[in-house]
Amino acid sequence: MELTLLGTGCPSAHLERYGPAALVHHAGQTILVDCGSGVTQRLIAAGSSGRDVDALFLTHLHSDHIVDLYQLIISSWHQGREWPQRIFGPPGTKRYVDGLMKLWEPERTLRIAHEERDSTEGLEVEVIELSPGEVHQFGGLSVEVVEVDHKPVRHAFGFIFAGGGRRLAISGDTRRCQTLIDAARGVDLLLHEVFIHYELPVIPGLRTERTVSNVASYHTLSSDVGKIAGEAGVGCLVLTHFVPPSCDRDAVLDQVKADFSGPVIVGEDLMSFDLQAGVLSYGQARMSFPLITRT
User: What class of enzyme is it (predicted)?
Assistant: First the structure.
């Protein structure tokens, strides 16, 4: 099983951290998690493309996680996709996707007529709305749906991937959530969001004290995420969805590793993890990370 971080950012536009997205690949199956800004470009940079994606799983319907969905559909078609996109998401996903496709229908109709490609099936969309506790199977890769706490967002999910004797947890956006901790217990790698509250000072005209407090209330603080990984007994903790995207990486690492004795990795766009071999790749760099021994 391989995990590639396509986007480690948040709603704030950033040149190094694109919008939230991750790619999971195992036994010939490729699953995209979330569809943030720049995901189509990051897919290509990771050696993949929208054409290769077997399914898209959406953690929730916040704009930073879904903003490039139509771009994914169109670019996948241009890359030769000849089968419908399969989108798995929380309740409300079908309504959103139907509205998105209707909005762009005049553009799509004109494009189809003018470009005269062999097939239009790649522009079709199949939506499956998720419920907590469901397990979806893609060949040798399973995806378990875990309800997380991102209130006032009504429906928000994390996912547990399993295949080849390895397990991976992706938190989605959530405050500390016992359900996620229990579901992620003993996974080889936990990819978890992080909110760095001390990096968000009050700035008149930009954000108030109330703004910072409200945003912090439905995310996981950097002072808590290490404790969560420790309680879940995960093999390795990888941080993503950095709020704010520009932060002191050394300070974040020091804070989180004080609460978690295992490897803590400050995630970066296009960082990749081979969970079978225990190898992290980033550019030309390679390093090993320990794997959980299973009996």
Answer: hydrolase
